[in-house]
Design a protein that fits this description.
356 residues; globular; 81% helix; mainly alpha; 13 helices
Length: 356
């Protein structure tokens, strides 16, 4: 098995494992678990995996702490960003539909491109500008009908769990922006004069997120005070969420070493399909027709944009192979021609020698 196949399998495994997160948040919320308790336990259970892997990558706890001290400026920005992303990721599934949440969060590759242009000075290809305009059109197609319906009083009551809401859509949008800024910060650190490794930021932000959840809940995070079901179901769901978060952190560190960024982005888009699918199997929720139409178009736009570098690479390889073949053919022709020239000269000179 080559490195590319390994990278794709690792990435796809991580995406499949994180995709039921929307279903698990819905399950926990419907049985009385407040959002603060959800992300308290989720991030607490993810901490051993993220911290253990970060220490392994850096060669131990002491080298990990040394990297944090050396890159303290980048860490000071990365930790709050990562914390906000983790909180918003959970809240988005509580306050809006999984389809809307995942579509808005998965816009982050486009925001990464914009941030890279203004912060890192990246030159954006034409396809990115086109994708930004088309993505904006898809978003309007999804959300304008919902706003019009709300203004006409069709959704006078507060949105129920699993239904789309303006508040939840804004949270999901901010989550995507925050994720893009975090990725840009990681790139900025890697391009510094002395490269900064932010692998420890995930573990620190997980601990901070858990503390924030504990404070929001006033210390009331034990399921006996709010859970409306069997306790083993609560612990199974929370441990599953925490393990999935820890695994996706490890996957997102390893996979980019084996496959291209475009391939990583295409694999991540799969979550926008699988997440709502898990919720449909669990609760029978079907997204609105505008979400299905606009979301399908948005996924196509993002897929084409993310696969652009793959097509460019394939075209470059094709041209390179064609150039090498043509060079070999032409050099072979020249060599053959060079071999025939002395023979012609011998044939022309031999009669003259005979007459003499």
């Amino acid at each position: 098995m080559n490195d590319r196949t390994k990278g794709l399998l690792i990435m796809l495994t991580g995406v499949v494992l994180i995709s039921p997160d929307a279903l698990l948040v819905r399950f926990l919320s419907e049985r009385g678990t407040p959002p603060g308790a959800i992300f308290f336990w989720k991030m607490l259970f993810s901490l051993p995996l993220s911290l253990g892997f970060a220490a392994y990558e850096q060669g131990g706890i002491r080298p990990l702490w040394q990297s944090v001290v050396e890159g303290r400026r980048h860490y000071a920005a990365a930790i709050p960003l990562q914390t906000c992303v983790e909180i918003c990721f959970t809240l988005a599934f509580v306050y809006t539909s999984p389809a809307n949440a995942l579509l808005l969060i998965n816009l982050n590759p486009l925001w990464c491109a914009v941030a890279g242009r203004f912060i890192l000075g990246d030159l954006l290809p034409r396809r990115t500008y086109i994708a930004l305009v088309l993505a904006l059109g898809c978003m309007l197609l999804i959300f304008v009908p919902e706003i019009v319906e709300q203004q006409h009083g069709e959704n006078e009551n507060e949105a129920e769990l699993g239904e789309s809401s303006t508040k939840g859509n804004i949270i999901a949008f901010c989550c995507g922006l925050g994720l893009a800024m975090y990725i840009t910060l990681v790139r900025h650190g890697s391009k510094a004069e002395k490269p900064v490794n932010l692998i420890g930021a995930a573990a620190i932000s997980a601990a901070l997120t858990s503390m924030i959840g504990l404070i929001i809940q006033g210390g009331d995070v034990l399921p006996t005070s709010f859970w409306e079901g069997e306790l083993w179901q609560f612990w199974l769901a929370q441990i599953g969420e925490g393990m999935a978060i820890g695994i996706i952190f490890i996957v997102m560190t390893i996979a980019p070493r084996l496959i291209t960024g475009a391939e990583v982005g295409l694999c991540v888009l799969l979550e926008a399909v699988l997440g709502p699918l898990f919720v449909y199997f669990g609760y029978g929720d079907v997204p609105s027709k505008w979400t299905i139409i606009g979301g399908s178009l948005l996924l196509v736009v993002l897929a084409i944009h993310e696969s652009g570098p793959l097509f460019e690479k394939a075209n470059y390889v094709r041209k390179s192979i064609s150039h090498r073949l043509s060079t070999r053919i032409s050099s072979g022709f020249v060599a053959a021609q060079a071999e025939t020239e002395p023979k012609r000269e011998d044939e022309e000179s031999s009669p003259v020698e005979g007459t003499v």
